[in-house]
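User: Thanks for the earlier help. One more: Retinitis pigmentosa GTPase regulator interacting protein 1. Can you show the sequence and predicted structure together?

Assistant: Of course, both are below.
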Amino acid sequence: AFLDLQELLLTGNDVIEQQIDIVSVDEDKEVIGTLKVSLEAAKVLTGIYQEFHQKDNGKTEDEEEEKKKKTDQIQLLDYEEDGDF
């Protein structure tokens, strides 16, 4: 028996008293029972998903900013003036 959390995330709908089959683990996958389940987690999963992707986007923007700073910098060479020339 299992619940598809990706579907829960994509639809944004909680699972309320859904009847799911319990199947055997052998090759036959025979239904050996049923279970009635509820899962109220759509809002939490959506929040976690959004927070995770905001962090990824933030890193990308920071990396782009650092890259831009490096390319915009003027390279200055320091040298000592020698009076012999």
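User: Great, one quick takeaway?

Assistant: Strands lie at 15-23, 31-39.
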